[in-house]
Amino acid sequence: MEANDLTRARNGDEESLARLLKEHYSFVMKYVWKMCGDEQLAYDVTQDTLMKAVQKIDQYRGTSKFSTWLIRIATHTYIDTRRKQKRNERLEQQERERLKQQTTHQLPEEWFDVQEALWNLEEKYRIPVLLKHYYGFEYREIADMTKSRTGTVKSRVHYGMEKLRKELNEHG
Fold it and tell me: Domains of the chain (ranges plus CATH)?
């Protein structure tokens, strides 16, 4: 069904495009939320991502999976959004604590340690680590999504994982 919807969407069928975006909304939302750690920002970036997908559907060439194309748009949208915003570190910490308190009864304590360690990683490490180890993308795919070289992605994943291990060992 998705292949037919993709063809129709690329040819201007708005209903097919709407179905595709609805099918992928949760996937994109979860990815962005894991990347940024801010639920409201994740909703905003996801909405912006879907709007860009609507505007650029004619540019989708089918050389990668549709989900990969959306992740690429989401990644760039997030990076652009972060460049435009100057977030106050104290407000970010308060938001994280609020989210932690809301979901404490649903998730094991270790999840919060790992998620906090991820959020504390610089974006240049966090994004490649998430894409590689959580979503299973290949290094070359990540390089394409982040407009980086494959060697740079490998290095950032490696150093990001080292930083995560170090932080988790210090607090564990």
Answer: 1-87 (1.10.1740.10), 93-172 (1.10.10.10)
